[in-house]
């Protein structure tokens, strides 16, 4: 159980939150699990693949980045499973790549986008 907070602690926390609310959104992180879902966004915003990865060596994660209307856009795709050759989808992959991306890129806004594989069901 956490110790009770005094009024000074609560006031400091409120001041910090008020400051964060005034901070502009400059860096956006978009997480998309499947390559077929990521590429249209990459093309729309003319993002380029980062050859100098910000991620640990050996992970298949791919970062695309660029600037659109003064926003730094980072799109992360978890890549393909090296042994199976399919997109690395699922909760474990998503949580790992999201955590590492937040740590490396310090985004102001995070968007988790995708169709959860719904393209095939819709005939695309």
Automatic annotation (TrEMBL):
Q: Where is the Nucleoside phosphorylase domain?
A: 27-120
Q: Which GO terms describe its molecular function?
A: methylthioadenosine nucleosidase activity
Q: By what name is this protein known?
A: Nucleoside phosphorylase domain-containing protein
Enumerate the Gene3D superfamilies for this protein: Nucleoside phosphorylase domain
Sorted alphabetically, the Gene Ontology BP terms of this entry are: L-methionine salvage from methylthioadenosine; nucleoside metabolic process
Q: Which organism is it from?
A: Punica granatum (Pomegranate)
